[in-house]
Amino acid sequence: MLATLVPTLRRDKEKELVLTDEQAVLLIGMSAATIDRRLARERAKMTIRGRSHTKPGSLLKSQIPIRTWADWNDAVPGFVEIDLVGHEGVN
C-alpha cells in the first residue's frame, strides 16, 4: 500500500508528506516488520491506561454475588439480570 500512498501524498497540493526522492524509495521498500518495529514506541503512547469502571480490591469482591449450582432459582416472574460493560474504544 505504501507504493500507492507515498507518491499520492507527496504530490498532494497541501504537501501531506514532504520527503526527498531517496527517502521515498527507502520508505516504499520498507518491510512490514520494520514498520511495526519503528512504530512500536508511538503505538505504546496511544495505549489507554487506568480507565476501568470497576475498583480493584476486596471491597468489590464482597459486592459481586457468585452463583453456585444451587443458586439458579431465577424462574420467578419479573426476574432480570443485567451486565454493564463500558465500550469507550480508543478515544
Short structural summary:
This protein has 91 residues and is mainly alpha-helical.
Structure description:
The protein has 91 residues and is mostly helical. Helices cover 40% and strands 0% of the residues. The protein has helices at 2-11, 21-28, 32-45, 58-61. It is built from 4 helices and no strands.
List the helices and strands and how they pair.
Blueprint: H1 2-11, H2 21-28, H3 32-45, H4 58-61
Strand content: under 5%
What's the tally of helices? 4
Helix content estimate:
25-40%
Molecular shape = elongated
Number of strands: 0
Order of helices and strands: HHHH
What summary fits the major beta sheet? none
Q: Between the first and last Cα atoms, what is the distance in angstroms?
A: 26 Å
Radius of gyration: 26 Å
Low-pLDDT windows of residues: none
Overall average pLDDT: 78
Structural class: mainly alpha
